[in-house]
Amino acid sequence: LWFVSDSLILRLEPNRLQFFDYDSLIFHCEGSHDSTGLKIVHQSKGELLKCRNYSDIKKDSGQYWCESRDGKRSDIIHITVTDGPVILESPISVVEGETVTLRCRHKTTSTNLSADFYKDGHNNSRSSTGNMSIPSVSKRDEGFYKCISGGRESAESLMAVQGETHQCYQIKFKNTCEVPLFVLSIVIAAYITWSLGASADTRRASTVTENTNV
């Protein structure tokens, strides 16, 4: 009895979807027991190195995903690289119940400036610090966000909100997905109990056979 994760996840470092040109970005492809066969893929440029500096905004913006040698793929992430003065720092995805902070960031200054935040084209919040906090995020908060600060506007990025998810596991070569941890615990306990019982029955049968022969 063993368990193997069956899903791939593409993570970015830093964890955001918008970048200034010449920013550095590291890709991490996780979730496979065979790390040697993983690769990062761009929709038009093909396989990439895991770490790179963005220098050509037209070619480096776009869709990215990771693939395994056996053909599994992660969800697609859309990255925006801009030569503009403002970006929106938002995480790739969040889980329901978490607190999320969006930041309107200027390229030429580290000082926090006031900003307006928009969700799906509608003014959602105004902040004097350039930060917008969403406590206990829910699916209602999912959507396309952008910010405007000092008359300069960022691009839009999707903030995806995920519910509680469970890994997919292989149990004796049969895939079992969306299995809560307590159910897996029951399965494991039942298997161990059955194994111990079967072993005890075998020992008793062996003892009876030996006594009969004597």
Keywords:
214 residues; alpha+beta; Immunoglobulin-like; 17% helix; 41% strand; globular; disulfide bond; transmembrane; Ig-like_dom; transmembrane helix
Structural account:
By secondary structure, the chain is α+β, with helices and mostly antiparallel strands. It folds into three domains: 1-83, Immunoglobulins (Immunoglobulin-like, Sandwich), CATH 2.60.40; 84-165, Immunoglobulins (Immunoglobulin-like); 173-205. Helices cover 17% and strands 41% of the residues. It has two helices and 19 strands. The protein has helices at residues 57-60, 181-213; strands spanning 9-13, 18-20, 24-30, 39-42, 46-48, 51-53, 62-67, 77-82, 86-89, 93-95, 100-106, 115-119, 122-127, 131-134, 143-149, 152-153, 157-162, 169-171, 174-176. Strands 10, 12, 13, 15, 16 and 17 form a six-stranded mixed sheet that branches. The protein has a five-stranded mixed sheet with strand order 2-8-7-4-5. It has a three-stranded antiparallel sheet with strand order 1-3-6, with no helix packed on it. A hairpin with a 2-residue loop joins strand 12 and strand 13 (122-127). The two termini are 38 Å apart. Residues 1-5 and 166-180 have low confidence and may be disordered.
Q: Helical proportion?
A: 10-25%
Q: What overall geometry do the principal axes of the alpha carbons give?
A: globular
Any idea of the CATH topology of the largest domain? Immunoglobulin-like
CATH superfamily of the largest domain: Immunoglobulins
Span from first to last CA? 38 Å
**Cα Rg:** 25 Å
Q: How many domain units?
A: 3
Alpha-beta classification = alpha+beta
Strand content: 35-45%
**CATH architectural arrangement of the largest domain:** Sandwich
Helix segment tally: 2
Mean pLDDT comes to: 78
Uncertain regions: pLDDT < 50 for 5+ in a row?
A: 1-5, 166-180
CATH class annotation of the largest domain: Mainly Beta
